[in-house]
Amino acid sequence: MTLNPADCAIHTRTNLPWSLRECCERYAEAGLGGVSVWRDAYERIGIEEAARIVKGSGLRVPALVRGGFFVALSEGDRRIAIDENLRAIDEASALGAEMVVLVVGARPGVPLADARSMVIAGVGAIAERAQETGVRLAIEPLHPMYAADKSCVSTCADARRVCERIGNQAIGVAVDVYHTWWDADLPTEIARLGEAGRLFGFHVCDWRVETRHMLTDRGLMGDGVIDIPAIRGLMSDAGFSGMIEVEIFSDQYWAMDQAEYLSLILDRLRTHT
Length: 273
Known about the structure:
This protein has helices spanning 20-29, 47-57, 75-95, 112-133, 156-166, 177-180, 186-195, 228-237, 251-254, 258-272, and strands at residues 8-11, 34-38, 64-68, 99-103, 136-139, 171-176, 199-204, 244-246. With 273 residues, it is of the alpha/beta class. It has an 8-stranded parallel barrel, surrounded by 6 helices.
């Protein structure tokens, strides 16, 4: 399948050394169609200025990243998390973002079953605001290596069950190949999510065989072992028509000249996606 850069977006975290303005200007110049905005990208300038920059660029905003982290030891902390997610939804609306990506949370000392109940309660508590603003909520399953402290939702099946328990059509799933490529049930789950209208996002990068850091050593497409075109095919067959989002945390690539890195990303989108 040929790939048009206009159908792709890059997460601001991918080009971490660049400001939000630099990301938007460079992506637009490169012919990309979108930018997925991390909240830290506008921490210093504020949401109003961020919205001016993004809207002025003409880029589509498939996602605001990130909300979630509903799991906490106390009821008070869980309430704080809900309030923060409501703010994220409002910020996404201000940016014109189509969804908020949710990394749902986990915490040592909280059993996984209890954590998942907290996630259902937390996502359920913000679903009405999302529906009112037209901002969707995309639960992103994370690789099981993060189950202790980042996400008690490790598979697309886990995420689908959360969606089904809550029942609101504003809630769906973002499929990140880094976190899900290993799952034997992935083809079935992508098809089920597509049939249910809950296939909201698709993130690409690669898994290095010898990963040097569990957070900041993601590979660029083609650096590792993930059959990204096959997963892209599954997404397409399931009816996904959203943007392909490049999301890479990499000390190696952050140290590069970012203009050269962007050229490399574009090349790998064409050849390995």
